[in-house]
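Intended use. Records like the one below are meant for learning the mapping from a protein sequence to its folded structure. Do not use them to infer anything beyond what is encoded.
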Amino acid sequence: MNSEILISGDQTQSWWINTALKYLPEEIMRDEGRNLVIVGVGDFGGCRLPKQYREREIILLSEWIFPPPGHSEEEESGKCFIITLLHEIAHAVNKHKSPSLDKLSTDENRDQENEADNIAIDWYNSHVRSLDNDYLTSLEVSTFRELVERFGKLCGAIEKYKWDWHQKGST
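Structure written out for the chain above:
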């Protein structure tokens, strides 16, 4: 299904990315897939993006956005990852501008974010409705935003712990 999309990441990251791509409408995959590169940056400090990547829309995914080992798409962490990736794809498909590079106003940025949220939730809910899975249910945009906020706080705490531990270890 995603033969046109370039994916880079470790085995687990690639699995999650491919799982999320199943939620995209077929016409988006067909019409936009060749323009996308999705990179799970893992836990390395940096990487070089080859020329064939730079000619496409590039989506970089931090290691903390991926669900923990053993989690599934039915769990909150899986739903949050899937919808977040769909949200970023919605930005790419709709050719949204960069808030900082294109100097968007707060209102313009908020409008783009709301549009990407709504599109991502529509794609997610359409796929969920097509399945016979009692553990996957449709979500409202507000529920997705609550998930992102909750996981963002958790991940921020984890990153602070890692930083504090690193600082103590280097003194």
